Amino acid sequence: MTLAKIVYASMTGNTEEIADIVAEALENLAIDVEINECTQVDADEFTDADICVVATYTYDDGDLPDEIVDFYEDLQELSLSGKIYGVCGSGDTFYDEFCKSVDDFDAAFAKTGAIKGAENVKVDLNAEEEDIENLEAFAKSLVEKLSE
């Protein structure tokens, strides 16, 4: 069975909700899903997955959350060729560097040799109806990329 691993960092619960929306969408597409907070999993566990997803928030003006920095650094050391990845997350449009952590993780995944399976999804604070639709389309795109 196809396995998707979702790792997230969430301070207010917004990004956890985003991760849950993606997980549910993947499950609805007959994908097995494991979801973990970034502090409860090692980056190398992505080697067991077919689809790798990071959902992160951006702290302050473009900073990675403290709790996901080690995961981010370890991710870049992995070889994930043949894996499909996607990145989503939340931020606040008040800041100039809106959702920069999403872009940082996209670049980190690119170093692993993994294949980008969906465009990044950036959510302003918490997921509204349009964001939920975008996250469901994100999940569908990941699964479609896997079957190419």
UniProtKB/TrEMBL annotation:
The Flavodoxin-like domain, residue ranges: 4-143
PROSITE patterns given in the database record: FLAVODOXIN, FLAVODOXIN_LIKE
Matches recorded under SUPFAM superfamilies: Flavoproteins
Keyword Flavoprotein: yes
Transmembrane stretches, start-end: none
A family per Pfam: Flavodoxin_1
Keywords: Coiled coil, Electron transport, Flavoprotein, FMN, Transport
GO molecular function, one term: FMN binding
InterPro entries, alphabetized: Flav_short, Flavodoxin, Flavodoxin/NO_synth, Flavodoxin_CS, Flavoprotein-like_sf
Superkingdom per UniProt: Bacteria
Cofactor: FMN
Coiled-coil residues: 115-145
Role according to the record: Low-potential electron donor to a number of redox enzymes.
Family: Belongs to the flavodoxin family.
Name the record gives this protein: Flavodoxin
Native source organism of the sequence: Candidatus Enterococcus wittei
Lineage, broadest ranks: Bacteria, Bacillati, Bacillota, Bacilli, Lactobacillales
